[in-house]
Structures
1.
Amino acid sequence: MTVLARTIDVTRRYGEVTALDGVSVEIRQGELVGLLGPNGAGKSTLINLFVGLRRPTSGTVELFGGSPSDPVVRRSIGVTPQETGLPESLKVGEIVDFVSAHFPDRASKDELLERFGITDLVKRQVGGLSGGQKRRVAVALAFAGNPKMVFLDEPTTGLDVEARRALWDGINAFHAGGGTVLLTSHYLEEIEALAQRVVVVGHGRVLADDTVRAIRDMVGVRRVSLVASSLPSLPAVLSSRFEDGRYELVTGDSDQLVVELVRSGVPFSGLEIRPTSLEEAFLALTSKEGTHV
């Protein structure tokens, strides 16, 4: 597949702080890529480099084969930054018209409003909207110019479950039509629901770049669930929780844990071993400072 955006050995420093350290990432045409990492990991910095808001301290950033600093190149992208400021005196419909006017190929206003569930807001002034409503408008604006690729930085922050799922539907519709998406999120279930590929960043470096399933397998973390009145000290337990007579154990070696459990002679029942969630895999990856996967 054609590479639409890439960084090659990119480093970005802010004074003495290194936000990105030798990062190389490719985003290919038609992909929906989730970018995960804790606060300060470099997610927003990476997006800002891709969309031309920042320049690397060293290394190369390419967008559609050119430079992100070229306005002509940027016409083919849409962006929702982590923080947005919309003119509060304008109506939602007026803002959509204003943003759309900057693009030679613009999306249908009615279709855009409907896709992101904001048709009922079209005559409302931005200043009278809730934080979640403003966020839905900001995400919709990323698609106003019929982009080939969109960059969404924490697109559903502050939204309730229903509004988040409405945005998921809009993003999925764009992707199903051949669009390319790079999004960041703190909602790990959101990445699981949307992304085909996951890039995990931590300490300014890429810790993992693969499918959700592959990342789970990389860290080898499993969840062991069982019913028991008490448990002895067991090996390789990363975390444990006891609720309603059932233990939930996260372990790096489920086989060893079960062997030691049987050897202990403690009565138990209802043993279940299953893959971790992306959240557990993510925490295991980002907790290993300096680790490359």
Note: The radius of gyration is 22 Å.
2.
Amino acid sequence: MSGEFEVAGAMAEGGMWARVAEPKAGEASVEGHGKCLNCGTILNGPHCHQCGQAAHVHRSISAFWHDILHGVLHFDGKFWNTLPLLAWQPGHLTRRYIHGERAKFISPMALFLFSIFMMFAIFSYVGSPNFTGDNMKSEAAKDGITVTPGSDWRASMREGIARLELKIKTATDELAALPADDPQREKLTEKLIDLKREVNGLTFATEGKARYPEVLGPDGEKIADTFEFNSDVDTGFKAFDSWINKLASKAKKNPELLLYKMQSNGYKFAWLLIPLSIPFVWLATIGKRGHRFYDHAVFTTYSIAFMSLLFIVVTLAVKFNIAPGLVITAAFFYAPFHMYRQLRHAYGTSRIGGIFRLSLLLTCTIFVVTGFLTILISLGLIG
């Protein structure tokens, strides 16, 4: 149960940070009368204009839980106003927020903070980003395969190696049972070599060497030498080379620690995605006048928040086996379509212009993600 409590705690933490980013909810339900119960000011509306307290307070269990949902998770009318527009009409949401309709919507930064905290909380509950560790172990157990404990990505590779080894054993037994002049021997031998090459590919990643060097050949030996990781970087700058080689040595000795640090730093420095993305959004919208960098920041923050929520949906679908293939395929195609709709309606582009700007923005996204991962890797190695 510790994983569930950790997820709930991280979600609550994200909600509280979102509340810090957007302290005023802007909601009202009934007209006030009499004096404020907090400061005694005569009320002219549903809230005190002096201290901001609501005119009517409730002393019930339902009101207590409402306060928790509303105050910690920011679960109010803004949520229902914002989420449908964010999912289907992101461009309209962006434009309306930029042009002043803000009391009815969750601010982009508050939504971004909550979605990022929630995404990484789900990651910590599910496991590594490949989301397959538990499923791989259960499937391997059905086949009588024992997977060596380790990080999820290595465990899944070891599970694949174990499956291939079973096939290699079966093929070897079949080959030994065939007569020397049987025409099936050649075909079975080729199959056996292919299986061993697949195992070599996986053992390169998990063990740094080929398990079946006899099937490598000349090109394979070069690859094997590359995966030994024995050569040092030599650029001619001794101080730089020493620093790089030291970091590479740390990554080689404990890759699981590096992955853990990357995941841990991911949510702490996720805000870097916004300043990294804004210049590229500006580049993709060159020619559209009347827009400021504030507009690009709102566009970027809402977009990243939605992608985080979409990633959460995909993660949970894979974790609980809820039509994972369908969900992943739908998310893969809807993500760029969502960006297209947001670009077109937020900046008022034509269909052709929107497609052109989308292609440019998708290309720029590769640079943003690469830069962000580079920062996480550097922080993981230095820390």
Note: The chain has a mean pLDDT of 76.
